Amino acid sequence: MATERTLSIIKPDATERNITGKIIAMLEEGGLRVVAQKRVRWSREQAEKFYEVHKDRPFYNDLVTFMTSGPIVLQVLEGEDAVARNREIMGATNPAEAGPGTIRAEFGENIERNSVHGSDSPENAQKEIALCFDESEIVG
Ligand code: RTP
Ligand code: MG
Question: Does pTM top 0.95 for this prediction?
C-alpha cells in the first residue's frame, strides 16, 4: 500500500470544547502524520464551495451554517492508505453508529456535530487539499 494524503477537518463542535489535542492524538496514534495544519474560520462562500457536492442534500444549509459557526482546524494527514485509515479512526458519520474507540463515538454529539471530516476517496482528497492548502504549506 502506498503512502497517501487525506484532508481532515476538526469541526466547530470540537474546537468549542477545546478537544483538538485529544483528536490529533487519536489520529497520530492511528498511524497518521500531520503534515499541514491551520486554524481558520470559514466564510459562508468557502463552506459552500467545500461542500458543493452536497448542495442538493437536505442537510446542506444547516451543514454550511454549522461549519461557519466557529473556528475549524484544517489538516493534511499522511500515511499508508491514509484516506481509508482516517475514516476508520473517525468512525461512522452518525456518532450513535460509530464503533467503540473511534473519534465520533468518543466525541461526536450528533449526526451533524460529529467533530471531524475526512475525505472519502483519494480523488476527493486531492481536490480538498488543493482547495484548502498551498503546496508550500505542506511539509512531509
Ligand atoms: P465528512 O464528509 O464530514 O467526513 O462526513 P461523512 O463523509 O461521514 O458524511 P457526509 O455524508 O459526507 O456528510 C457530510 C457532513 O454533513 C453532516 N450531515 N448532517 N443532518 C444530517 O442528516 C446530516 N448528514 C450529514 C455531517 O456533519 C457530515 O459529516
Ligand atoms: Mg463526506
Answer: yes
Domains (range + CATH), the chain: 3-137 (3.30.70.141)
Q: Is the CB of 124 under 6 A from ligand 1?
A: no
Closest C-alpha to 93, from 64, 115, 77, 78: 115
Q: What's the N-to-C CA distance of the chain in angstroms? A: 18
The CA distance from 22 to 5, in Å, is 21
Residue 100 to residue 88: CA distance in whole angstroms: 11
Residues within 5 A (CB) of ion ligand 2: 120
Report the share of the chain in percent with pLDDT over 90: 99
Interface ipTM: 0.94
